[in-house]
Amino acid sequence: MITQHHFDHELAYLNYYKFGSGAKIMLCFHGYGMHGKQFKMLEEKLGNEYTFYGFDLFFHKGTKLKDINLATIKKGITKVELSKFISDFCENQQIDKFSVIGYSMGTHYAVALTEILYNRIENFIIIAPAALKPGKMVKFFSKNKIGNKALEKLVLSEKALINLLKFCKRFNFVDDIGYNILLKEINTADLRLSLYACFTYLRLLDTDKNKLHQILKEEPIKAFFISGNRDKMYPPAIAELFCKNLPNAHTIVLNENHEMLNQPFVDELTKVLL
User: Fold this and answer.
1) Alpha helices for 155-259 (secondary structure H)
2) What is the mean pLDDT of the chain?
3) Of 51, 141, 183, 198, which alpha carbon lies 20 to 30 A from 104's?
4) Which residues sit opposite 99 in a β-bridge?
5) List of E strands, 83-197
């Protein structure tokens, strides 16, 4: 059974979903264009072991920043600020230890929390690990000043953004799956603004790979890196390279493309968590 809830915080009005009834806690961070119910499929096999909290992430569905304007978006959110936000949520829910699971865009959230709150994390699970190696397009539009300013201008024009997306596809900055996902997310002015906001507001959540590697090596955290062998954006080699010399890290490769949250994914995750 899934229930919808809200957490009123000075930073944002957080919309989230709760499902499962287990004693262990798992915080869930969805992919771009999705919502807090994306991991609902885990309840059937893991719901007796875990209680899941699935958040609508910033600029998605019901979660709204309290101060939403262009200046706030451009300022961005730091790892420390995000961790404080989630820590306040956990205090409200009386949560101490927890696991994190993130998919694609959501891996940036999961990694940022692990870097700051590592002493509270039991399992670290990332699927399609965008946080380990963001694509060229993400780097250009989020970190490059010229690229970000260009994106700001482009969101005002639907045709210009579509043409840019076609250009990125032509020169392999994004594959067919990523192209189709992004194309659905630029149909309205609000969606185009959300696209700009996601690139810009989250740009400070850059992964410190050395720090994350050291944490996963030294702390009693079980780490799982899940990739699709047909995912051109985030192929298995990204996780395999990062996981060298990590005794508690496990790589799982599914016979999937980027859209891999399905029953085989549930089955494989269940095997390693139970």
Assistant:
1) 158-170, 176-183, 189-201, 209-218, 236-242
2) 92
3) 51
4) 26
5) 98-103, 121-127
